[in-house]
Design brief:
By secondary structure, the protein is mainly α. It has one domain: Up-down Bundle (Glycerol uptake facilitator protein). Helix content is 76%, strand content 0%. The chain has helices at 16-25, 30-45, 49-62, 65-76, 83-87, 92-100, 106-112, 114-120, 123-153, 159-172, 177-201, 205-218, 224-237, 242-277. Helix 2 packs across helix 11 and helix 4 (65-76) packs across helix 10. The radius of gyration is 21 Å and the shape is globular.
Length: 281
Amino acid sequence: MNERDVPRRPTVPIDDVEAGHIAGRVRLRAALIYEIVRAEGVRELGRPTASLFWSGFAAGLSIAFSLVAEGVLYAHLPEAPWRHLVASFGYTTGFLIVVLGRQQLFTENTITAVLPVIGAAEFGELRRMLRLWGLVLASNLAGTVVIAGLFAHAPLFEPEVYDAMTAVALHFFELSAAEMFWRGVVAGWLIATMVWLLPAAETAAIWVVLLITYVIALAELSHVIAGAVEANFLVFLGEIGPGTAVFSFLLPTLAGNIVGGSALFALLSYAQVRREMHQVP
């Protein structure tokens, strides 16, 4: 049965109150979710440069608390097989601040900004998307440099917390560039999935963000902005060189996040609703 076969009128007598209850329990169609996310993308594409930059800079600062929370948990948990399962909850902290605080995060914008471009197929929309991507990515990374430098040089935490933060970051850099890329693809897909789920989540938004980002941490997937905090932190400490941070982490993870969030999820999301978008109700 397709949507045209679904009765447009109730099959039993109902009053207005009951009709409201039904409307409140009907799940959003994929095409409607697509339109909500696309409209959000249109709004973001039209924001002033200064607004995008400072929102992105704030996100770069906020996402750093994923490393802090994860380090604090690791420092205070005993060495046990379940340690990673519990400490990974700390990774969700920065994402909760950024997403619920409506700050500009690069991977979150890869799908919202792509959908208007796919639908319009115009050079002007592509240019606006690249402008948004460039601004948000640059401001996110600038924020991670500032906060990582502060963490590395200011006596903010106990020595055991610093040791745990360093160990968490170094463990991630045991991966090869190819592993960073493929894990970045999966992370990009999951972040795009989170964006797709949020319009229907309503009051459960916090649980959607927590669950998706917890899976990213649990599977040790690579996220370009959250990982940039770790990379910059290690560079300031002298544990790795800038070249390692850029070529072993930043570039492959950036490419993977874009492929997973834009080339795969966004295009497939458009493909599943394309025919519905051109139907007259």
